[in-house]
Design brief:
By secondary structure, the protein is of the alpha+beta class. It has two domains: 203 residues, Alpha-beta prism (UDP-n-acetylglucosamine1-carboxyvinyl-transferase, Chain), CATH 3.65.10; 208 residues, Alpha-beta prism (UDP-n-acetylglucosamine1-carboxyvinyl-transferase, Chain). The chain is 31% helix and 25% strand. It has a four-stranded mixed sheet. It has a four-stranded mixed sheet with strand order 2-14-16-15, with helices on one face. Strands 4-5-3-13 form a four-stranded mixed sheet, with helices on one face. The longest helix has 13 residues. The radius of gyration is 21 Å and the shape is globular. The structure holds uridine-diphosphate-N-acetylglucosamine (UD1) and phosphoenolpyruvate. Uridine-diphosphate-N-acetylglucosamine (UD1) binds next to helix 1, helix 5 and helix 6. InterPro entries: Enolpyruvate_Tfrase_dom, Enolpyruvate_Tfrase_sf, MurA_subfamily, RNA3'P_cycl/enolpyr_Trfase_a/b, UDP_GlcNAc_COvinyl_MurA. Keywords: Cell cycle, Cell division, Cell shape, Cell wall biogenesis/degradation, Cytoplasm, Peptidoglycan synthesis, Pyruvate, Transferase. Belongs to the EPSP synthase family. MurA subfamily.
Length: 424
C-alpha cells in the first residue's frame, strides 16, 4: 500500500436502495494512537484489525523514519512494531503535515527518551486546531517546551507526575498526555479529560503494556507512573464513524442494512438521532440493523465531545436532513469551521442557510441533483458520496483521495450494498 497523491474521482448514479450486510473495520482514530504507543517500549507490539488506510501508511512510514521496525501486513490487517533502537526524535515534517495523529509520537518520545521535536500537525482543515493542551501538559510534567519558528522543541529529564487541568477535553491531547503519564515518576491526574471510545481503547492497550490507569472513559484519569512498559498484543476497536456513515447511507436510501462488528454503546448518539429522524435501529449483540421504510423527519444535532454527537458524522447527517420533512438544525460545537461542505451540497440543490460558521438550518425534503462537487476533507468527502446516492443523475466527487485517509474501501462497500458507484 502506497500513499496516494493522485487526484481521484468517485462517480455515483443516485436512486438505488441499499440492502445487505457489511463488516465494519477497525477505527483509524484508535489504530493511530495505538501505533504511536509502541514507542513507549523496546519490546514488540502487535496490533490486529488495523484498517488499510492512508493514515496508517503515513504512521508506518513516520515510525520507520524514527528508527522503529514496522511490518504492515495488509493481508491480515495486522501491524508489528518494534521501537528498540530509536535514531531520530523528529518525525519528518512532510508526514507530520498529513494528519493530526502524527503529533501523538511527541508524548511517547518525550516520556521515554526525554526529547522530541515536531512541526505543528496537519490534518483536515476544520478551523483552529492548536496543540496548546498537549504543550501545557508537557510543561506541567517538567519538560522544557520551546516554540520555534518551525514548531516545537521538547526536552526533559524523567517526567514528573502532576495534576493537569485540560482547558478543552482535546481528543489527541488526552491521548498524548495519557501516554506520557504512563512513564512519569509518581501520580498524574488529568482533569477534564476526553472520553471518546478510541481513548479508552488506547488506555486499555497501555494497561496491557503494564500501565496503571484508572478512570478511563471519564473526565478524570489517574495514572501511577511505572519505570518501563512491555509490548502489547491488541485489537483495534470497530470504527463507529465508518459504521455511522453506512448507517446514514441505509437510512437516506430507505434501505435495510446490517452492520456487523459494531459496538452499541459507541453508536448511542447516532442511534438516538436516527430514531428521532424516523429510521429504525435494531441491535443484536455486535450487529446493527438500520432501515427506513417510511419518511424521514427534521431533527437537530449538536456536535460535541463524546458522548455528544460525533463531529465526524455531522456532515453525513446533513445529507439525511436534506431528505427529511421540515426544518433541521446543525450546531457544530467542536470545530469553528466545519460547515464549509454545505456550499457543495447547495450546488446539488440542498436548501441550507448558514447562520454562522457553526450553525446551519436545512430545509427538506429536496430532490438533490447530481453534479461535480469537491471533497474538502475525509468526512465532507463521505457526505458528498452519500448525497450522490440520493441525487438525480450522476454525481462526481472530485478530490476523493481524501476518503482514503479514513475509509477502507467505502466505494466497494457501498457497491456491495447495491449502490451504483465506482472510482473514475
Ligand atoms: C486523529 C484524531 O483522532 N482526530 C480526531 C480528533 O481530532 P483532534 O484531536 O484534533 O480534536 P481535539 O479534541 O483536539 O479538538 C477539538 C477542539 O478542541 C480545540 N482545542 C484542541 C486542542 C487544544 O490544545 N486546544 C483547543 O482549543 C480545537 O480547536 C477544536 O475546536 O478528535 C476530533 C473530535 O472528536 C475528531 O474530529 C478527529 O477525527
Ligand atoms: C478530522 C479527522 O482526521 P484528522 O484529525 O487527522 O484531521 C477525521 O478523521 O475526520
Amino acid at each position: 500500500m502506497a500513499i496516494t497523491t493522485a487526484t481521484e474521482r468517485i462517480r455515483t448514479i443516485g436512486g438505488r436502495v441499499l440492502r445487505g450486510r457489511v463488516a465494519i473495520g477497525g477505527a483509524k482514530n484508535a489504530a493511530l494512537p495505538a501505533m504511536a504507543a509502541a514507542l513507549l517500549t523496546e519490546e514488540e507490539c502487535v496490533l490486529e484489525n488495523v484498517p488499510l488506510l492512508e493514515d496508517v501508511v503515513v504512521m508506518t512510514e513516520l515510525l520507520r523514519a524514527l528508527g522503529a521496525e514496522v511490518d504492515l501486513d495488509t493481508e491480515r490487517h495486522r501491524v508489528r512494531i518494534r521501537a528498540a533502537d530509536i535514531e531520530s526524535f523528529e518525525p519528518p515534517p512532510e508526514l507530520v503535515a498529513r494528519m493530526r495523529a502524527s503529533f501523538l509520537v511527541t508524548g511517547p518520545l518525550l516520556a521515554r527518551f526525554g526529547r522530541a521535536r515536531s512541526i505543528p500537525p496537519g490534518g483536515c482543515q476544520l478551523g483552529s486546531r492548536p496543540v496548546d493542551v498537549d504543550l501545557r501538559g508537557f510543561r506541567k510534567f517538567g519538560a522544557q517546551v520551546e516554540v520555534t519558528e518551525s514548531g516545537f522543541e521538547l526536552r526533559s529529564g524523567r517526567l514528573r507526575g502532576c495534576e493537569i487541568y485540560m482547558d478543552y477535553p482535546s481528543h489527541t491531547g488526552t491521548e498524548n498526555l495519557l501516554m506520557a503519564a504512563c512513564l512519569a515518576q509518581g501520580t498524574t491526574t488529568i482533569l477534564n479529560a476526553a472520553a471518546e471510545p478510541e481513548i479508552v481503547n488506547l488506555g486499555q492497550i497501555l494497561q496491557d503494556m503494564g500501565a496503571r490507569i484508572n478512570g478511563l472513559g471519564t473526565s478524570r484519569i489517574v495514572v501511577q507512573g511505572v519505570d518501563r512498559l512491555r509490548g502489547y498484543r491488541a485489537s483495534v476497536l470497530p470504527d463507529r464513524l465508518e459504521a455511522g456513515t453506512l448507517a446514514i447511507a441505509a437510512a437516506i436510501t430507505h434501505g435495510e442494512v446490517i452492520l456487523d462488528h459494531v459496538r452499541e454503546a459507541d453508536m448511542a448518539p447516532l442511534t438516538h438521532k436516527l430514531r428521532e429522524a424516523g429510521a429504525e435501529v435494531w441491535w443484536s449483540e455486535s450487529s446493527m440493523l438500520v432501515r427506513a421504510p417510511g419518511p424521514l423527519y427534521a431533527t437537530e444535532i449538536q456536535a460535541l465531545p463524546f458522548p455528544g454527537f460525533p463531529t465526524d458524522l455531522q456532515a453525513a447527517f446533513a445529507v439525511l436532513m436534506t431528505q427529511a420533512q421540515g426544518r433541521s438544525r446543525i450546531f457544530e460545537r467542536v470545530f469553528n469551521d466545519r460547515l464549509r461542505y454545505t456550499s457543495e451540497l447547495q450546488r446539488m440543490g440542498a436548501r441550507i442557510e448558514l447562520i454562522d460558521r457553526q450553525q446551519a438550518i436545512i430545509e427538506g425534503p429536496v430532490k438533490l441533483q447530481g453534479t461535480a462537487v469537491r471533497a474538502l476533507d475525509i468526512r465532507s468527502g463521505a457526505c458528498l458520496v452519500l448525497a450522490g446516492l440520493v441525487a438525480e443523475g450522476e454525481t462526481i466527487v472530485l478530490e476523493a483521495h481524501h476518503l482514503r485517509r479514513g475509509y477502507e474501501d467505502l466505494v466497494g462497500k457501498l457497491a456491495a450494498l447495491g449502490a451504483d458507484i465506482h472510482y473514475a
